[in-house]
Amino acid sequence: MSVAQGSLYPSDNRTIGLISLAHGTSHFYHLVLPPLFPWLKTEFALSYAELGLLMTIFFVVSCAVQASSGFLVDHKGARPVLFAGVGLLALSALTYAVSSSYVGLVIGAVLMGCGNGVFHPVDYTLMNHKISPKRLPYAYSFHGVTGYLGWAFAPVFMVVIAELANWRTAMMAAAILALVVLFFLWMNRELLTDDAKARHESNLAAARKTNPNHTPLGTFDFLKLPAVWFCWIFFFLSMVAMAGIQYFAPSALLKSTTFRWHRVTSSLLC
Question: Structural domain tally of the chain?
């Protein structure tokens, strides 16, 4: 009997924790760069448009990788793709830390996008096939919460270290954090084992039940569904709005605080 068909397994909590830890790490990396915009702007003499382009590159690459990594998960299994994603996140932070030009920052954004793009196909595949059905609601909830915790933790982590040392040290610390997570996942790799072949056969059997006429289904037939496009438009617009606030809020607040401080000091001097 597979885990997905069985009763509550003691390993469910550990598996949920591991998957959620990986998801929190990916969201943490969403915000390792924006809090450092004030430092990067000064050191590399960049405009806010150039800084924003780095995040655009990150998300465009992440979007492309997310679509393609789903096929890789189906053929190779989720666990190796997960390990590769976390490793790429660590590599991207190291690339940022040693960058001496804007080109280096762009390379770091590409690597980070490649690493971030694998997580949702990996996470949902593992949860759907490793967690018992009665605990899936808890798994999805905890998975989502850790994503928000990653967002909350990243600015504090990066800014505190940058203030105490410098922005390059903050990036090195982010790389070390990802490597620690990767080591922890590897030590518990037996809980993340995913039989891609068995999963593929199970999906085919389910497709035959829902498609009794045996009409051939193409790989991209889901794109014909209007609901898919409505969902895509909704999430695209909501993420554009949220990303704009997330990534430029630190710089906007810093600029606003500096402006107000100058006004106060000018009024006192006058």
Answer: 1
